[in-house]
Design brief:
The protein is α/β, with parallel strands linked by helices. 33% of the residues lie in helices and 22% in strands. It has a domain of 116 residues: 2-Layer Sandwich (GMP Synthetase, Chain A, domain 3). The protein contains 19 helices and 27 strands. The strands form 6 sheets. Strands 8-7-6-4-5-9-10-20 form an 8-stranded mixed sheet. A 5-stranded antiparallel sheet has the order 1-18-19-21-22. Helix 4 packs across helix 9 and helix 11 crosses helix 13. The longest helix has 21 residues. It comes from Cylindrobasidium torrendii FP15055 ss-10.
């Protein structure tokens, strides 16, 4: 089928200008601010510290002036390596408004991964939390701590320095193509790459979101919530160093009045205490965290803790239908939205329209929605040809929110840029496969790199995973499928499953439950999709922080075990 267009109105093209202004200084939002123009924007869950909307903007302006006085210049790239904290959005927006790119470094990186990131991006200064400070940092990097630490310059010390005469009192003007931040990819197929996100990308993504939000407000006026300030309360537990949380908790935080209760890092027990304590109304889940809720041993306690939640958005990775249904049963009062995005598209590419918009849109089970405003798409086969409607193909995207590419000039980066961006006349390859129906609804199939060829036929690991999770007795709570050696040729891989059992599954006993699940798959799938690589019971399925299954880790451990076993023969 030809190019696919978004059913939404087209946003205006991005113009030159600082993205901080687009996020926090929009005239229509300044007029509509809550009550006297102020409200609680952030709360630190750990210590209860609060920061109002006006207080946040003042903190950003003061930090910008202090950074400018301390020699933070547009030619620099500033690193930020920290768990969630109040200072994170302040530092991010201070650098953004100063026109200084921020490299968002995940705080959980190993020394090897950190060394790779520092070798990819020439960071001159970095702000770190207590844990991240303990890395062996190169001498050429100026290290600053977010909290006061002996022997290091802290953020508060930088803030206390008198402003110099050339300090930047105003938000610095930027070009639309200037880099705003560098987001390190999750690296599911190798070491992380630094994604270049521009000021224009951010501004355009905001316009995209506002088109859908305004349409929703026309159909369903903003809801009244029973919170102390009458505005939604969001539990902010996803890592701000990743795209989903960065935009939800930091970049879009000022577009409509909301209070974000910051949880430093995800902890299920802390979250279940915080939600009823604060009366949390909005939560954003990735699949791995939702799975913790639906498999919690005390489902009644979880359901009671989630009673205040009214809106829940799911993203970060594919959200299985069964998992979504089970999560909805825990929160029957909540609207559960779903979408698809990636850092290379700034954030969102496909999303379920708010109910009633687009002429009465109704979500379809299994669909992640329609194209976001201003985007074009194609679905292609392995030969690069467009596939017909209803046929699975790789998703290609085009639009102003598609980033410029990966940062760096190494051969590896150049190869990645040429194979991902500007493909076939300006398209970006997502590496994800979808189908689309006549109404423009997209249905995720699998990752291109995860797809197996068995006897010349394509096998989707995701399809097998969904079959395992759909066992009528609910024997499995998590499943991962990947290709392992064992085919008819040296290069062929066959499906193998790693399964986390439910309590009911454990009760059957190991051999019985394995036989039952293997037999169930054989009854539901064509023979070439059978688990010829076996089925293994595991205690957990490894995932990255955004919830994507790390299949390569499972395969590597399995292959290493096999190699060791053969070596003993």
């Amino acid at each position: 089928m030809p190019s696919i267009f978004s059913p939404w109105p087209q946003p205006p093209p991005p113009l030159d200008g600082n993205a901080h202004l687009a996020a926090f200084y929009r005239p229509e939002h300044q007029k509509a601010l809550w009550k006297d123009g102020d409200f609680t924007l952030y709360v630190d869950l750990q210590n209860g510290q609060r920061l109002s909307y006006k207080g946040f903007l003042e903190a950003v302006a003061n930090t910008r002036r202090s950074l400018s006085s301390s020699g933070f210049l547009q030619g620099d790239i500033i690193g930020l390596m920290s768990d969630n904290c109040l200072e994170f959005p302040i530092l991010f927006h201070a650098c953004l408004s100063l026109g200084v790119p921020v490299a968002l470094i995940p705080p959980y990186l190993t020394p090897r991964e950190l060394a790779h990131c520092l070798g990819t991006v020439m960071i001159t200064k970095v702000f770190v939390d207590t844990q991240s400070r303990q890395h062996d940092w190169p001498n050429y990097i100026d290290l600053y701590t977010i909290t006061a630490t002996d022997g290091y310059t802290s953020l508060s010390e930088v803030m206390s320095r008198p402003a110099s005469s050339n300090a930047s009192n105003e938000v610095v003007h930027t070009k639309k193509d200037d880099i705003a931040y560098l987001m390190f990819s999750s690296g599911t197929s190798g070491l992380p790459k630094a994604i270049k996100v521009s000021h224009g990308n951010i501004s355009y993504s905001i316009e995209q979101m506002l088109i859908t939000a305004r349409a929703a407000a026309r159909v369903n006026p903003p809801r009244k919530v029973s919170t102390p300030e009458g505005i939604p309360l969001v539990l902010a537990f996803l890592p701000m160093c990743h795209t989903y949380a960065l935009h939800t908790y930091c970049i879009r935080a000022g577009l409509t009045p909301k209070t974000f209760v910051i949880q430093r890092k995800w902890d299920l027990s802390d979250a279940l205490r915080a939600i009823p304590k604060y009366g949390i109304t909005d939560v954003n889940f990735v699949p791995s965290l939702a799975a913790q809720l639906v498999t919690h041993p005390d489902q009644n306690a979880v359901r009671e803790a989630l009673q205040s939640v009214r809106v829940s958005a799911a993203g970060g990775a594919y959200f299985p239908i069964d998992l979504k249904r089970r999560l909805q049963r825990l929160m029957p009062q909540a609207y559960l939205a779903e979408g698809y995005g990636l850092s290379e598209a700034t954030i969102t590419a496909i999303n379920q329209p708010p109910p009633g918009t687009l002429g009465g849109y109704k979500s379809i089970p299994g669909s992640c929605g329609v194209l976001f405003p201003g985007l074009h798409a194609r679905l292609i086969d392995d030969a690069g040809n467009d596939v017909p409607q209803g046929t699975i193909g790789e998703l290609l995207l085009s639009g102003p929110n598609i980033v410029q590419g990966y940062y760096g000039d190494s051969e590896e980066v150049q190869r990645a840029n040429s194979s991902t961006f500007h493909v076939d006349g300006g398209w970006m390859r997502t590496g994800d496969r979808f189908s689309i129906d006549a109404a423009g609804n997209f249905f995720f199939a699998d990752r291109v790199k995860d797809t197996l060829k068995v006897s010349g036929l394509q096998v989707s690991p995701l399809e097998i995973e969904n079959v395992l999770l759909a066992h009528p007795e609910g024997l499995a709570v998590e499943a991962a499928v990947a290709g392992v050696r064992g085919g008819r040729t040296e290069d062929e891989r066959v499906p193998r499953a790693w399964v986390v059992l439910s309590e009911r599954g454990h009760a059957l006993g190991h051999d019985t439950v394995v036989a039952e699940l293997v037999g169930w798959c054989q009854s539901q799938l064509s023979k070439y999709k059978w688990l010829r690589g076996g089925l293994e019971i595991v205690t957990h399925v490894p995932k990255n922080p955004t919830g994507k299954t790390l299949r390569r880790e499972l395969v590597a451990k399995y292959e290493a075990r096999n190699l060791a076993a053969h070596a003993k023969l």
